[in-house]
Amino acid sequence: MEKKRIHILEDDQEIRNVIEILLKEEGFELQLSSSFAELKKNIQDAMPDLFLLDVMLPDGNGAEICEDLKTDIFTKHIPIIVMSAQNNSEQKAIDAFADDYISKPFDIYNVLERINAQLKRSSESRAKV
């Protein structure tokens, strides 16, 4: 079975490291970005199977980036999980067509469960096509 690639867009180095360590242990291939500009550059090389986006970023808002990705023909089929410490971000993420929302601080195993659920749902919907 080929490794699933997850793109993590998170500007907080410590949070990115924690998620990176966990997901590598679980056998995922990772793309890491700390800004929207970096994400756009990275996905030119290879598309991920899932995006994990932070809301507060140095050069954008994760909910807006989510909406950009969900309305782009090349990325609209890729599941997106939005993460935020802000109370009002969940509705923004839903409005931006996010597939799931995780509030910070989060339980790392809950993040893993949700990633796996989105990847499973995504592969099942592609299998029907």
UniProtKB/TrEMBL annotation:
An individual GO BP term: phosphorelay signal transduction system
Matching InterPro entries: Bact_response_regulator, CheY-like_superfamily, Sig_transdc_resp-reg_receiver
Pfam families according to UniProt: Response_reg
SMART domains linked: REC (SM00448)
Keyword Phosphoprotein annotated: yes
Highest taxon in the source lineage: Bacteria
Entry keyword annotation includes Phosphoprotein: yes
Occurrences of domain Response regulatory (ranges): 5-119
Residue list for modification 4-aspartylphosphate: D54
Record keywords: Phosphoprotein
Name of the protein in its database record: Response regulator receiver domain-containing protein
Species in which this protein is naturally found: Pedobacter suwonensis
